[in-house]
């Protein structure tokens, strides 16, 4: 009982530390003040996803649809029975035209804008992380996390064919892993009673991993180390990802995407400037394995990813298979 209480207390502490770390948006302001390029990219994300994308949704719901309902009325208010109304066929035609015009608005504006936003925002997120990391270099003390994550080994920068193949294998595996993990999150959302809750927590971990992955890429943390670090400190990253998901989880898919696209760069920057090691190992916790233990979050996604890699016969990936988690 004491062990369970101790683990619950430790999990709560780490969760709160991650949640608080994600909400430290004042660090974003500080980074933007240091870098003009970062301010421009962040502003472009707000302009595209906030003003244009979400603004279009507000315009549709507050102006376009009410105008169509006024021009193409839905019912005949002068009589009690629509069946006896001589204009019932006209009203049905109005209803069809109104729905068709709204759908055309989605097909020719929202969906292309949605795809365009995803592509452009993805490129901008990488620029934002790059400029944020460059701004962080002005504070050498904030590079301690990269040192701590790589403290047991030296960085190997050997440029050979084997290393290139392993790097390609890692990239392919990482893409497959996160893709299958996202599909797992989506599928769990349909499970009765507990599906939404499970989807919420898994989506929180997914967003947290995405946020920190930019930083780990720039600090050249190997894939096996980042996965091990992430799964060993799952409570912290659950807390970090919760604000990301809470901001958009209860909206419709399009609105939720727009909100998330606005806020995601901010969380990327808080992850870039995060001192996760200090938060995780604070209050006397010095050993990596002294806490809650490793939670195999990516077990199912890893199983499917390895199956696909074996199917594609990517033999170069076998060289790093023993390094990663099971």
Automatic annotation (TrEMBL):
<protein>
    <recommendedName>
        <fullName>Protein EI24 homolog</fullName>
    </recommendedName>
</protein>
<dbReference type="InterPro" id="IPR059112">
    <property type="entry name" value="CysZ/EI24"/>
</dbReference>
<feature type="transmembrane region" description="Helical">
    <location>
        <begin position="104"/>
        <end position="126"/>
    </location>
</feature>
<dbReference type="Pfam" id="PF07264">
    <property type="entry name" value="EI24"/>
</dbReference>
<dbReference type="GO" id="GO:0016236">
    <property type="term" value="P:macroautophagy"/>
</dbReference>
<keyword id="KW-1133">Transmembrane helix</keyword>
<dbReference type="GO" id="GO:0005783">
    <property type="term" value="C:endoplasmic reticulum"/>
</dbReference>
<keyword id="KW-0472">Membrane</keyword>
<keyword id="KW-0812">Transmembrane</keyword>
<feature type="transmembrane region" description="Helical">
    <location>
        <begin position="164"/>
        <end position="187"/>
    </location>
</feature>
<dbReference type="GO" id="GO:0016020">
    <property type="term" value="C:membrane"/>
</dbReference>
<feature type="transmembrane region" description="Helical">
    <location>
        <begin position="257"/>
        <end position="276"/>
    </location>
</feature>
<feature type="transmembrane region" description="Helical">
    <location>
        <begin position="45"/>
        <end position="65"/>
    </location>
</feature>
